Structure formats: C-alpha cells, structure tokens
# Entry
Amino acid sequence: MATGTTIDVLYFAQVAEHMGVRRETQPLDAPVRAGDWLDALAARCPALGPSARLKLAINQEHAARTAMIRPGDEVAVFEPVTGG
Amino acid sequence: MIRIQTERFDVAELTGLLQARAAGRAGALVHFLGMVRDYSPDAGSRSLFLEHYPGMCEREIQALCDHARQRWDILDTVVVHRVGELPLGDPIVFVGVAAAHRGQAFRACEYIIDALKTRAPFWKRETLADGRAFWVEQQAADAEKTAQWDTP
# Structure
C-alpha cells in the first residue's frame, strides 16, 4: 500500500512482461510531473521503448504527461488499450 | 449495468434484460456484439487472452455510458466485456442501448463501443497455432474513429 512517502505502481500487459513485476511500491516524497516520472522509468527499463508510447493512469483515471503524480497515488503504466 | 466477466454471456438474455429494464418507455433497442477474430490471418490463430485493469475498467465504461446519456436521448445501457482466455469466434463484448427512438440508440451504441476500444483498459494477447504469442497493437483507425466523436 502507498503511504505518504510512496506510490503504488501497477504494470499491465506487455509493460508488466518487460518490467518482470505487475506491482511495486516506489518511494516518492514530493509531487513529480508524470512525463518526467515516465521518462525515468523508461530509462531504467530500455525494453519498454520510447516513453512517449506509454500510457499512464493516476488513481484509475487516464492522465496526460503534464499531470502530477503525488505521494500516496496509484499509478498504472500500460501500452495503448486494445479492448472491444 | 456494467459487467466484466470470464464466463460466456448470452445475447438473448442481455437484450431481454435491457428490454425489461426499459419496458414501456423504450421504442428502440440497439446492440453491438463483438467476437474474437483472428488478428494474424497469415499465421493461424489459436486463442486470445484478455487482460484488464480491475476498477479502472468499470469506471471508464461507466463514464462513457454517462457521457452517452448526457449527449443522446437514451434510457438505459448494458455493457458486458469478457476477460481471460477466449477461443476464436467467442463473444467478447456486448453493448446494448435502449431509447425512445432508434436514431439516438444507434448513435449512442456506436459511440460507446468506439470509445471503449480506445479508453477502457483492456489488452489482447494472441497465441498462434505454432505457440508464438504477441500483444495486439491499437489500430490508428480506432483512435481516429473515437476522435471523430469529439467534433460534432
């Protein structure tokens, strides 16, 4: 569970396969721009490819790269969705 | 009503449910049924696996249905989407809309399935007959189709 100094991060589908985990808790003690956070994730795991391709949800809502991630948030990372 | 489930669904049961819920008020009922198809006809498909983001999926679909009810004069919606391992030809998604008049029901139904395809967090992985598996990529045409609903 995320606390005041962490975030819950969820990975789905191909992103989960590349990360090797489906869920992890990451330290975060101050708000960060979603795009910057995603760039750092992509740098940590080159198999993810360019971070511009990746999609993000914050607290179960689609979020743009300009959105802010705050301590305690649930953040999900995934490729463009393919339901229906 | 929104349901995400692994089990097969019965179209007649769902249309019957929608019909009963809007009985007396609805003059039209439109539904869309999506089925599992072969995403790589050259390689031979075996099955499709659907992963989803529980919680966000239901919220997104609810938001799409709410939007449809604000935009068109419709009475009720039923959306059922399956997840897990699905064989070719199986039903995968049902979108049903009840309205007083057919035009509103047709448009709302098409909007909901278009928007669901680009907004609801589901991902398809296809397994081929030879055992290879890959994640299906979002079609540019799907994104364009959803975007068209934003320009009246």
Observations:
- The domain at 2-130 of chain B is CATH 3.90.1170.40 (Aldehyde Oxidoreductase; domain 3).
- Chain B has one domain: 2-130.
- The CA atoms of residues 25 and 100 of chain B lie 6 Å apart.
